[in-house]
Amino acid sequence: MKEATSKENQKVSLYSTMGASMFPFICWNEYIVVKDVLPQKIEIGDIVLFSSNNNSKVAHRVVKKGFVNGSLIFQTKGDRNNFLDEPIETNRIIGKVIVLRRKNKVFGLPSKGRELIGYKMSCFSISIWHIFKRIAVKTFSLLQSNKILSRGDR
Known about the structure:
Blueprint: E1 2-5, E2 11-16, E3 31-35, E4 47-51, E5 57-68, E6 71-77, E7 88-89, E8 93-102, E9 105-108, H1 114-145
Antiparallel strand pairs: 1-2, 2-3, 3-8, 4-5, 4-8, 5-6, 6-7, 8-9
């Protein structure tokens, strides 16, 4: 991680990525720039970097936000995951991802349309998972019915 300070005296940090939970939007071994922001400025569709329960750093998309017992809580999800993360309190938010560097190209993440894009990516990843699951079950059944796959092969 590398840190710097922006013109507005906000801390910005550079992180390298690993894992596939945000694929295809963020891929393995890319770089993200994370800006320190007030939790109230985080919107649905934004990608935030937060500390998980085991203190690892996770960058996932905000899909819900609201208040529980007077405290602001965020619900996040990896675009590729078919499940939601545990709710995140504001003290675990490190910042908002504002730039993605892929190979030699740099992409700024626009502020308009994030909610729609985030919602569509979440729905798309869940749909792909269900389609893949159906194909796998049908293929398995077909192989078993044609005696290509015996019960001992499971």
